[in-house]
Amino acid sequence: AAGDVVGLQAESQMATPVGSQDGGIAARNAFSNGKLRAADHRVIPRCIFTDPQIAVVGMTEEQAVAAGHQCWCNTIPMSLVPRAGAIRDTRGMIKMVADAETSEVLGVSMVGADAGEVIHEAAMGLRFRAKLHDFIDLLHVYPTMAEALKIAAISKYKDPAKLSCCAE
Question: CB of 110 within 8 A of CB of 148?
């Protein structure tokens, strides 16, 4: 598969979408008359399709500290996510890792129903260097599992167990 040619690079993974993206970038760069493009491997989402799913993007707390960040990190149980209660599957958690000074979100790890779908919103946020308030201010359909990202970000400022509907 295309991902097998990527190899075990730091911040990369051997996955078909990674190999496909890297190959496309290499081809465009080969025929480029100017600005070369590089893949941003720090924002590659990953998912293990167990039950519940395990999905991650970006840095873990340990990686962020090793990179010199002072971290604000918090883990919330899926029982605080209204959609998890509605589908009667509150197994799991979501952890958000952010720089304590700038509030830039550096990584998200999630164990829960539909984690593989939710992680894409986190990846988009990391790609554009979103801050905690970017996740808080983004309107989410209620109730959805993606709301877990908003609740995790809000947990820096409020007790998520005391929120009303729509994570407000």
Answer: yes
